[in-house]
Records
---
Amino acid sequence: MSIAGGKHLAFERGKSIGCETIQLFIRNARSWVSKPLDKKDIIEFKKNKEKYNDIWPLVSHNSYLINLANQDKELEQKSYQGMLDELIKADQLGIDYVNMHPGNKNKDENDIKALLRISEQLIKLMNETKSSNVVILLETTAGQGNDLGYKFEHMISIIDELNDKKRIGITFDTCHSYVAGYDFTTLNKYNEMWDLFNEIIGIKYLKAFHLNDAEGELNSKKDRHTHIGQGKIGKNPFRYFLNDKRFKNIPGILETPKGKDLKEDIINLNTLKSLINKLSS
């Protein structure tokens, strides 16, 4: 949801099109600079949070610049401070989850070393925000470029190192995971994928979905979202996610292309809602 005119307006925009949950940016997604929240912002946001209390949970997406795997000392520090600022602001606003892409490694670097750096940064962040209940969500990625997080094994490597596992979770992005090579386009393949997820990571860590169709083919590593039913995933596989009783209370976020009037969001929401309780193999 857009935060134009104030973060608190994201609730009204979400409610106007029937959202049950919303994701928003709480600082500039493409800048390192972010001024502190003023008291008025916090009060207005919390007032609307109470008013629209059927919109739950609240998810913020961190800045695209943040890379906790960065080896460059200056960028590593900027990433750490940026993520710390995200967590502090989320806590001030009463936001439940901060979603993040795990990071990008150096081109020829060993995955394990880079994943360990992410874990180390997360441990420091959690220690520095000990009084907070904000949960950090690692989003499954497309595997484009030097992405980390496109394999389930990457995620558990990070999680295993953490002390406070109550404050970590996974966001499963349908577009990203499909182009990363996870096939869920038939009911059998869908069930096999979740068996694998549970075996490697554990279903208990799944906290959110990003429900996006994909422009790219299976295993193409092409990170391009498109409207539900208009991409290579197609409409039918989204039925499996929407009708899986295990995930009834897990939020689903649309990150499909959008205009200013929310028309595309309404179409995509209606498409998803039309698939509930209509299973097809």
---
Amino acid sequence: MIRSPLNWAVLGLLIERPSYGSELKARFEHRYEGLLQLGSDSRIYRVLTELEKQAMIRPMPEANPVSSGTERQPKRHYCATAHGRESFHEYLVEEMRELRRRSQLRARLLAVLVDRPLQALEVIDEIEDACVQEAIHTPLPAARARFPTDSVLALAQDLAAEECRLAMDPNLEFVGYTRRLFKALAKGESLPR
């Protein structure tokens, strides 16, 4: 099973359209804008090799296999397989489930500080700070031309900005709720219902 988000991100680009190594790297950097880092140039080829081993992608037949020797070697294009598309779908669904599990885990981990309410309040303040900083640095969806040059990127940016905006409200509500609970504990009061 593929665990690396890099591999899933590259597979997603190949589901979008067939491509070759250096083009994929450029599309990756443009699309994921620092959310994921490929590192070295060779990393894209290691990802392609891993995806091919997992039968998630396959090389496409060469369009012009005969070379005169003076021409450049044709670039090997890859495309997603049916198995790759199905696995990608399953991965996206599982990622949403994982977000919910992580949220539940965060709440249970915070409860560990029941006997240290002042420490919990410090953690809650830092969580709130992180939420606010993320909100400050999240760009708003840009006004788009009627026919954007990269509609997939524009949609990805819109979805990311909206996800961040929608996630912010419940996070801040959670911060407020936990702050009230731990303040009551710090004062020796019983927990409000």
---
Amino acid sequence: MSLRLAGVCAAILVAVAATGCREGREVARLESGGQAFVAQCAVCHGVRGAGDGPLAASIIAEGRTPPARLDAQRVASLGRSGVRQAIETGAHVRQGSPMPVWGPHLGPEWIARITDYVVAMPEVGETARDRVDRYLAAPAGTPPSGRTVYVTYCSSCHGPYGEGDGFYSPEMASRMKPPRLPGEVLSAFDDEQLSQLIRAGGGHAANAVTMPGWLYTIPPGERQALVGYLRSLAGTEKARD
């Protein structure tokens, strides 16, 4: 092989490797963005962005604007900058939207990751959808909906697997400091006490004053499923891609 040909081949290999690295970073970025989307947004928009999250029915019943369907047409009409603005500032594209202001809570890095995920979501294939299903799947021997309830309502603070590493800005995280759940934290409560903590919120427990109460949000059956999932959390393994 001539030196010139060898140089061309080396350049091609470097370019391919660089492309692979960029794609790998983007996949990782969208993966973390997807986890944050499910934690922060799916309660209204649904896990697939269809506007069918668990709070959507109550929002409609109150006469408020339904959560937006994040389909290809809507995402294209907003563009990436519009999606980011809606997340960051709560820009109400439609009057009466219950969209909260996430900027001060999530910070620019997580907002960017969620934005990337939302922009890519309408075009994802079955492999990406399967990844979401695996992420939400309940561990063997636990109630089927327990993991989904946890991810939707609890992972924003407690993190995807209860490590206390939720999707908030460093400033917010330093003030909230959610505990790591596996181990002594969960073992300190029996099932009824844990259910009561979820119902009433952390104001009724020492060192957990920032935890909200979910009495009117998580129905009793789902709360029971959540307790079942929390009991298994110490042995939960992360879903693999």
---
Amino acid sequence: MSGMTAGKGLAIKYIQLIGLTICIFGLFLMGPSLFFGAFLPDKIWVIFVGLFLMGWGVAWVYALVALEIINSKGDEIKAKWATEFEKEGYSEREVNKKVKKQWKVASPILADRAAALNEMSFAFGSLIGPVIGGKLTDVSGYRHMTDDLTIACICAVFLNFCILILPDLFIKKKVVVDDQEDE
């Protein structure tokens, strides 16, 4: 039923992992880091490069979140429709046609809801992030705060890899391909 193959889902996860890794380098330069303070000059251009990398990495992470929401919920909705059509006595071919037809109508609505959820989450993070970052800066200082966030981002990369990518590398999934529509 799924229009997305396992390869596409894995590619999205890799892109998000790359984005998180770019964020690590951005945070490392934004301080500049106390870990390698002797190697990094305490200049504004270093912080600028760090901010640029941070923004670029966040774009890699968040650009595909709405697509993930649509794909995860879409498969569930398609399976529910298929079950309903099978109960009504339609053949497998007719079920596939009806599900595709209904998906063409429903997918824009789901895309709008996923985009709204994605934007709401990003806006909430933009609201609460500076508050938490300001408090951390007050408590430990700017350079320590960026180092702490770098460590948190490294943990996020590790968790992302272990939870989302590692299982896909060791577990073979059945790749489902949609039949082409009859013309």
